[in-house]
Structure formats: structure tokens, C-alpha cells
Amino acid sequence: MKDIEVILFDDNPRVRDAVGMLLSATPGIHFAGAFPDCNHLERDLKATSPDVVLMDIDMPGKDGV
Q1: What is the CA radius of gyration of the chain?
Q2: Which of 5, 15, 27, 28 is the right S-S partner for 50, CB 3.0 to 4.6 Å?
Q3: pLDDT digits (tens, 9 = 90+) for 9-58
């Protein structure tokens, strides 16, 4: 069975690091990347082709909503 590809968008570096470590250590999940904002959302999605996107809904600039 293929691992689930997950990416994360969050402006808080501590959250990105912590969630990234948890996801990387979870069997069946491939943590494909973390991004500090949504300014290049389309480019980041095309580059990683995730199955799941975890996104902070309260970020400066473009938010997760």
C-alpha cells in the first residue's frame, strides 16, 4: 500500500517542526514538506502532489481559508 503524502502550511516554525516530526515518524505517512505561507500555493502543490494538505487558517497574507 502506498504511503499517504502529506504537506503542511503554517507560519509558526515550531508548529511546522513539531508536526513534521510527528508525521515523519508515523507509519504509512510520507511527510512531503512544510511551507511558511500560502504565497506560492499552486507551485508548492504541483511540486509535492500531496494526498492531504494540513493548513493553518490564520496566517499573514493569504490564509488557509
Answers
A1: 11
A2: 5
A3: 999 999 999 999 999 999 999 999 999 998 898 999 999 999 999 999 88
- Let me know: does 58 contact 64? Beta carbons within 8 Å: yes
The dihedral region occupied by 26, where left means phi > 0, alpha psi between -120 and 50, and beta the remainder, is: beta
At position 33, the amino acid (one-letter code) is G
Placement of cell 502543490 in the chain: 45
What is the longest distance spanned by two Cα atoms in the chain? 38
Q: Is the dihedral of CA 58, 44, 15, 11 positive or negative?
A: negative
The CA distance from 12 to 5, in Å, is 21
**Integer CA distances (angstroms), 12 to 1, 19, 34, 45, 64, in order:** 32, 11, 11, 19, 13
